TrEMBL record:
Keywords, alphabetical: Heme, Iron, Metal-binding
Official protein name in the record: Cytochrome c domain-containing protein
Lineage: Eukaryota, Sar, Alveolata, Dinophyceae, Suessiales
Limits of the Cytochrome c domain: 31-127
Cited InterPro entries: CBM60_xylan-bd, Cyt_c-like_dom, Cyt_c-like_dom_sf, Cyt_c_Planctomycete-type, DUF1552, DUF1585, DUF1587, DUF1592
């Protein structure tokens, strides 16, 4: 039988990665050329235009041309070798399809075998060639969030607390077959909330506040357990008319001296007072005399108790009753309460080991609480952050302690809150790798020893470095090859290396799928298969792989070994005799058993063991298959090395890793034992490089306002850089060097062109399309694709959301809105296709949820928790901000839902939702929340900034109002509708109010630019790396003019734009010419969009 769980690497080995690519396996690096000299092979010298491009025109253009490109693949866009290399992922797929004969499809005319091979060889060279003798591309260092396994192990090794995150944390995403891949380990808002909850739970387990160890139990007599004559009496007492007992068991947290208080009363009779025996535990007993009659008395004692359960009791021991006695005839006892409190002093030994390890200094004479906290965190933070820390970092976290103590709580409680802040800091949650010298973006630098220690420990142990690794890193010795080899062997011998066995084999070999619905054998064919047998199969493979690791066996034993691990049940399944009991043991496979290595483990369900490989070899039975694969040892070793390197680095293997893989295989050629493979991979961080931050991405946004503008107050009189801002643009004075005013642009397709009235519908419809909308108020709308969606098709695959569409006013997608035009035209500026608009979202909560998959649930936590959590967030957001400045755009996405902006926006959204339910004052409330138009607009601008900052998307459209909107703006003294005012007929009062609206909107735009500039990124800020178009497709709303439009272009477009001037065009340049230029700056190679006539000139003068 052959295990389906390992068919993936069979396909990889057997088919030269072709089959593997079809199932999501990594790039085949075995085909990557690695020349040692500078001479190019003949295939590389073929001319693209005359010898390569004609092949695609002849055989591929019918399906993948400009008109109707199947699967969105338009090969006509690729007009040079560079354009192919820039879209490597697409062309890797094309190359594989051509190689296996799937492109062109079998029912189409086929190229000759010679032509096909030439194209495959040429693409192979262009896509995969690496010169190993040159400076190597090390690949980027991926910022990695700790996954659930790493989080649990790190908490255990850091604090000695066993916390299982799988019970409450959302599951980790999987990339390249593993759940420790940096690119897919996001941090959604729900996980942030779970981190806060976990930090609170862990801090309470790690540090014991004295108040949590002290007890104060008040046992009420009537509520205690009773025996003998004892029963519930008056005034909540336990009354004992004769011999009786009231007792209760309490839990004592620590050894110590406790205070015992008793309140009791008595009915006196006879010649002696009532007596009660008071006991507390096995060693304390006291006889109390209650001398008063019917008057309660109080008693207090000091008692030494041991940790554990303690029984406390009060017993009436001298009953008296004589009905013939003179005077009082009956003696009774009333036990009102027993109180246990303490201990007053807690011994150091009473605290848990985790507490004693973390708190080594406490406030004392001459040592303040702040100084004590700083001393503790100087020891702890380097281990928590896995690197040396600065004194300012120590001070920041230690400052929590006096803040908590100022609120009347203990030093230890302050340390708990400070620890919570550490555990939700990005410096703890993320693994960032530092270098030995400052690197410029795009350059390379050697990993420092602390980064090397973390990479090694999380590779082999899925946990933080231990003291040995930290000491070697501090001494600067870990990077030495002999030390690195010695440490790798030491760590493999440690029991923590079981994590490598479980996590790597469980995912590489698909063992984890056994517990899912993906593995469900037909019970009719396999009646013996059940959960118990499934678990046995899992354990067999895990133990076998573990033996390769622990016994340092040859990696090729994974294919050919004639031993395995079984218990009685699994042995019976395989037909092995002489095995009894539940315990697994290693057994040699007998002769005649058609089994060897992993391929014959029934790790999933059995499959047919006869067949033909994609490369042509036929086999009958598993041993013949294993024999074939055994002849291809290097391909198997390469597959194993690529998978383990992926697991170790936390990123997918790329074509430029070929030389690294080759070096690993060279070591395996000399020594094929597992330790040799692990050592070779451990040396990769030392031999390879840590790349600096990659180039920052470019962003593009389009902001639409309705009804035109008062152009005399919008358009500057002078062109060039020496111009004066007109009245409407005055709020942008501080940003004058950050944007350009562009005049002379026109939107011809917003004009009637024979269609009559409806300029407002055409204004928004043509704004981003440059296409004349079909005049209809029915379902047969037709327009054209908008520029934002053209860009999203190309670069949207690089972000979570291809594009984001937001607005302020709700709209409709049907019905009549403007002179016979559908409301779909007035409500949208983004169009996915000719007939499908991309609807905008106006509700901030919905925008946030679309960006991040849901908000943090609003738990009704206590005031104390909310207070401290807010303080924690204030500290760790500073950490996040500092961390962001060191990262490139792709890694910043890992922090996309992190505290700084995410929490700020979330809190504002929650506040706005509450305000929307409050009493509404006498002015118009916008659709959605909040109630104030400017606040709503700014909130949406904030969400745009957040989307760009987190690289959630790089393309956004924002409608400040629907086209033709008649909203009033009473908050600025404009009670009339906007559209109504736009037909001012030269009325000075109406013109002044329109200008006031124009300036009001510009004021919010200025706020947006403030926010964009405040976000540092790389060597600049977010605005430097963006292109923001603000405008309308109507200039004069009174006369519905569509030329000399009001347009601003803000940002520097990653250095491709020159702002700070008035750019004046002549002769009605199409607005879409501007868009073509912007698309090209986004690396979208479009030559025309809508009615464009070419790219706009002068943007980068």
């Amino acid at each position: 039988m052959i295990s389906a769980s390992v068919l993936a690497f069979v396909g990889v080995v057997a088919a030269g990665m072709v089959w593997g690519w079809m199932t999501g396996e990594p790039t085949d690096l075995s085909r990557t050329a690695a020349a040692g000299g500078s001479t190019l092979p003949a295939i590389a010298r073929l001319d693209f235009e005359t010898e390569i491009q004609p092949f695609f025109v002849a055989h591929c253009a019918d399906c993948h041309g400009e008109d109707f490109p199947e699967a969105g693949l338009n090969l006509a866009r690729y007009d040079s070798v560079d354009s192919i290399i820039e879209d490597r992922q697409t062309w890797e797929k094309v190359e594989k399809l051509i190689r296996i004969g799937a492109m062109p499809p079998p029912d189409m005319d086929q190229p000759s075998e010679e032509d096909r091979n030439q194209i495959v060889e040429w693409l192979d060279h262009q896509l995969y060639y690496v010169d190993c003798s040159a400076d190597l591309d090390p690949g980027r260092v991926t910022v990695r969030r700790l996954n659930q396994t790493e989080y649990r192990n790190t908490i255990r090794d850091l604090l000695g607390v066993d916390f299982d995150p799988s019970r409450t944390f959302p599951s980790d995403d999987v990339g390249y077959g593993f759940d420790n891949i940096g690119d897919v380990l996001t941090i959604p808002p729900l996980l942030v909330e779970k981190y806060l909850d976990a930090a609170e739970t862990i801090s309470l387990a790690a540090i014991q506040a004295p108040e949590s160890l002290r007890i104060h139990h008040k046992l009420v007599g009537a509520e205690m357990k009773h025996s003998g004559s004892a029963k519930k009496g008056p005034y909540a007492s336990a009354v004992m008319p004769s011999r009786g007992r009231a007792f209760e068991t309490v839990r004592v947290a620590v050894d110590g001296e406790y205070t015992l208080r008793v309140e009791a009363a008595a009915d006196q009779a006879g010649d002696e007072p009532a007596k009660m025996e008071l006991t507390a535990g096995p060693d304390f007993s006291k006889i109390i005399e209650i001398k008063s009659h019917k008057k309660p008395e109080e008693f207090e004692f000091q008692v030494v108790l041991s940790k554990g359960s303690v029984e406390i009791s009060g017993s009436f021991i001298n009953d008296f009753y004589d009905e013939k006695a003179k005077g009082r005839k009956d003696r009774n006892l009333y036990l009102k309460s027993i109180e246990l409190e303490g201990p007053a002093k807690i011994a150091e030994s009473a605290y848990r080991e985790s507490h004693r390890r973390l708190i080594t200094v406490t406030p004392a004479d001459g040592v303040s609480p702040l100084e004590a906290a700083q001393a503790n965190f100087r020891q702890f933070l380097p281990r928590a952050f896995r690197r040396p820390v600065r004194e300012e970092e120590v001070e920041k976290f230690a400052a929590f302690v006096p803040m908590v103590m100022d609120r009347g709580e203990s030093f230890e409680s302050g340390m708990q809150i400070a620890l919570q802040a550490v555990l939700v800091s990005p410096q703890f949650l993320f693994r960032t790798e530092g270098g030995t010298s400052p690197g410029r973006p795009g350059t390379a630098e050697l990993l420092d020893d602390y980064a090397l220690a973390s990479r090694l420990s999380y590779f082999l142990w899925s946990s933080m470095p231990d003291k040995t690794l930290f000491d070697l890193a501090a001494a600067g010795r870990l990077h030495k090859l002999d030390v690195l080899k010695e440490q790798t062997l030491r760590m493999l011998a440690d029991e923590r290396a079981d994590e490598l066995v479980r996590n790597f084999s469980g995912q590489w070999l698909g063992l984890r799928k056994l517990s899912t619905n993906e593995v469900a054998p037909d019970p009719k064919l396999f009646p013996e298969y059940d959960e118990t047998l499934r678990d046995d199969m899992w354990k067999e493979t895990e133990l076998f792989f573990g033996s390769i690791v622990r016994d340092n066996r040859s990696v090729y034993d994974l294919l050919t070994a004639r031993d395995t691990f079984v218990n009685e049940r699994l042995a019976r399944h395989y037909g092995l005799e002489g095995i009894e009991g539940e315990e697994f043991r290693r057994v040699e496979l007998p002769e005649g058993q058609q089994r060897a290595g992993l391929l014959t483990h029934d790790g999933e369900f059995p499959v047919d063991a006869n067949g033909t490989l994609p490369t042509g070899e036929s086999f009958e039975g598993p041993l013949e298959l294993i024999g074939i694969l055994g002849q291809r040892r290097e391909e198997f070793a390469r597959c194993l090395a690529e998978k383990m390197l992926t697991y170790a680095l936390g990123r997918g293997v790329e074509y430029y890793d070929k030389c690294t893989i080759d070096s690993i295989l060279m070591r395996l050629a000399d020594d094929d034992r597992f330790a040799s493979l692990a050592v070779a991979i451990a040396m990769v961080p030392r031999a390879a490089w840590a790349a600096g931050a990659p180039p920052t991405p470019n962003r593009m946004a389009f902001i639409f306002f309705p009804n035109g503008a008062i152009m005399k107050d919008w358009k500057p009189e002078q062109a060039g850089t020496d111009y004066k801002l007109p009245k409407t643009l005055a709020p942008l004075e501080k940003h004058q060097k950050d944007f350009m005013v562009i005049s002379g642009l026109a939107h011809d397709k917003a004009r009637a062109n024979g269609d009559g009235a409806g300029d407002h519908a055409r204004c928004s419809a043509a704004f981003l399309t440059g296409v004349q909308p079909r005049k209809t108020d029915g379902a047969d709308i037709r327009l054209g694709r908008s520029v934002d969606q053209v860009a999203a098709d190309v670069i949207g695959k690089n972000t979570r959301l291809p594009s984001l569409e937001i607005g302020i006013e709700a709209g409709r997608q049907a019905g009549r809105c403007d002179s016979g035009y559908s409301c779909a035209y007035t409500s949208n500026i983004s169009w996915r296709s000719e007939t499908v608009p991309t609807a905008k979202e106006i509700h901030p909560n919905a925008v946030f949820e679309r960006m991040f998959g849901g908000g943090v649930e609003d738990a009704k936590a206590r005031a104390r928790r909310n207070f401290y959590r807010q303080s924690i967030l204030d500290v760790v957001t500073d950490d996040a901000a500092k961390l962001r400045t060191k990262l490139g755009g792709s890694d910043r996405r890992k922090l996309d839902e992190y505290f700084q902006s995410v929490r700020e926006i979330e809190q504002r959204i929650e506040r706005a939702a509450v305000e929307s339910q409050a009493q509404i004052p006498d002015f118009e409330v916008p659709d959605g929340v909040p109630r104030d138009w400017a606040e709503h607009t700014r909130l949406m601008y904030d969400l745009m900034v957040l989307a760009f900052e987190t690289d959630t998307t790089r393309i956004c459209t924002f409608m400040l109002a629907n086209s033709g909107s008649n909203r009033s703006y009473k908050e600025i003294g404009v009670g009339e509708g906007h559209h109504q005012l736009s037909h001012h007929r030269d009325d000075a009062e109406k013109i002044e109010k329109l200008q006031r609206i124009d300036q009001y909107m510009i004021t919010q735009f200025s706020y947006f630019l403030d926010r964009m500039k405040s976000i540092e990124e790389g060597t600049g800020n977010l605005l430097d790396h963006s292109m923001i178009t603000y405008g309308c497709a109507i200039s004069d709303g009174n006369r519905h003019r569509h030329e000399d439009l009001p347009v601003l272009l803000a940002g520097r477009g990653n250095g491709t734009l020159t702002p700070g001037r008035h750019l004046k065009y002549e002769n009605e340049v199409p607005m879409n010419n501007l868009y073509v230029s912007l698309l090209n700056r986004m690396d979208v190679p479009e030559k025309s969009v809508g009615d464009s006539t070419g790219p706009a000139k002068g943007l980068d003068a």
